[in-house]
Amino acid sequence: MKFYGYKRPDGLVGIRNHVLILPTVGCATETCRIIAGLVNGTVSLINQNGCGEVEGNRKLTQTVLAGLAANPNVYGTILVGLGCEPNSVEVMAEIIGKMTNKPLKTLVIQEEGGTVKTICKAVQIAQQMVTEASSNRTVEVNISELMLGIECGGSDATSGLVANPVMGRVSDILVESGGTSMFSETPEIIGAEHILAKRCHTPQMGQKLLDICTELENDLKKVNESLRSGQPSPGNKAGGITTLEEKSLGCIHKGGTKPIMEVIDCAQRPSQKGLIYMNTPGYDLLSVTAKVAAGCQLIVFTTGRGNPIGNPIAPVIKVTANEDLFVRMNDNMDMDLSPVLQGKKSLEEMADSVFEEMIKVANGKKTKTEIYGFGFSETVIRRMCDYV
Questions:
Q1: In DSSP terms, which residues pair with 152 in a beta bridge?
Q2: Rounded to an integer, what is the distance from CA 374 to the centroid of its chain?
Q3: Omega within 30 of 0 (cis) for the link into 234
Q4: R_g of the chain, CA atoms, integer Å
Q5: What are the backbone dihedrals phi and psi of residue 141, each rounded to the nearest 5 degrees, phi first?
Q6: Residue 264, beta-bridge partner list
Q7: Which of 166, 178, 251, 374 is the most exposed place for a label (fewest CB within 10 A)?
Q8: Are strands 2-7 and 13-14 parallel, antiparallel or unpaired?
């Protein structure tokens, strides 16, 4: 099975060819937004961090920002900083340079003489980088080069009954083909973690997964909170999900049936192929950001209540098994999986259709989130105290 992608100098393969305008700190975010708005072929994102952070949070910020720059959908990066922040362009350039050898340029607003001068210089650099990127041609590569992130959000009963099981089969197909599939959100596996632990590649990895769940619940107890005060969400309950355990049993279907080859920290790049579990809070925007920072070129997002979010770097395919939702929010939904619920298609047939759609998107077909330009404000970086 093949698709056409952009071969990067670091050996990875992208399905998009963006130039990333990346702020090292919140103070540079608006400048980056304006730059990206002036040059076609560039993307940017909100970074509210980079200053006033304790060391642990700063490292989380750096991990995510560097991972986004290293994502294979990015041709090259223009790094823009203010000049007095702890997360300086020099620090970030060094971290990014250790992850990838793709083109990288840096600008510092204070050194350039202000916002307008920085924008003018950055536009010239971006124009040149986009020109270089546009000369790249896609080449045929094996599906094993694809890393898929599977997310669920705004779930209802149809998510656990159909949408997530369909994506579990899609995950299995990709893993069987030598590719990588990633799922996450620790609050949404609690109550079913023992099932996933048995599927881990080694007993030690299974214990790590169990320990992650135990630590989450214990940390919440220390601050007199309970996971169940926020899970299931009001929308989940309105959609027919009654307990956290019930939600988790539906959510874990996204991971299919294959062995979990690695359990990784939030936004960490996996060292193995196959099925990967990432430890993230149960927040869609954060989890999608973390998966893209880990290297996922493509996200498939299941929803039963409806969710419009995208990502500036990776295309997001929205799928639902709720026929009413697909009709009501057709502007946002890419695929209707409800024929499985209606008995018109088997789970396997629908999984094949989703996989075919993924190949089309990998080959350049635009998702609805891409068409609308969603993603700039939908980048969220984990904090040390994030739980759910």
A1: 302
A2: 13
A3: no
A4: 20
A5: -135, 165
A6: 278
A7: 178
A8: antiparallel
Q: What is the pLDDT of residues 300-322, one digit of tens each?
A: 999 999 999 999 999 999 999 99
Other beta carbons within 10 Å of 347: 14
Query: CA angle at residue 125 from 122 to 126, to 5 degrees?
Result: 80
Least confident of 49-63, 116-130, 239-253: 239-253
Q: Quickly tell me which residue has 């969603």 as its tokens.
A: 374
- CA 277, CA 256: separation in Å to the nearest integer? 12
User: Can you tell me which residue has the tokens 């950055």?
Assistant: 122
pLDDT tens, position by position, 346-376:
999 999 999 999 999 999 999 999 999 999 8
Residues 6+ away with beta carbon under 8 Å from 187: 216, 227, 230, 231, 244, 281, 282, 387, 388
Chain centroid to CA 321: 21
Check: CB of residue 298 under 8 Å from CB of residue 313: no
Give the 3-state secondary structure of the chain. CEEEEEECCCCCEECCCEEEEEECCHHHHHHHHHHHHHCCCEEECCCCCCCCCCHHHHHHHHHHHHHHHHCCCEEEEEEEECCCCCCCHHHHHHHHHHHCCCCEEEEEHHHHCCHHHHHHHHHHHHHHHHHHHHCCCCEEEEHHHCEEEEEECCCCHHHHHHHHHHHHHHHHHHHHCCCEEEEECHHHCCCCHHHHHHCECCHHHHHHHHHHHHHHHHHHHHCCCCHHHCCCCHHHHHCCCCCHHHHHHHHHHHHCCCCEEEEECCCCCCCCCEEEEECCCCCHHHHHHHHHHCCCCEEEEECCCCCCCCCCCCCEEEEECCHHHHHHCCCCCCEECHHHHCCCCCHHHHHHHHHHHHHHHHCCCCCHHHHHCCCCCCCCCCCCCCCC
Longest dimension (CA), the chain: 64
Amino acid 33 reads: R
Q: Phi-psi category of 185—alpha, beta or left, where left has phi over 0 and alpha has psi -120 to 50?
A: left
Tokens at residue 362, please? 């990998």
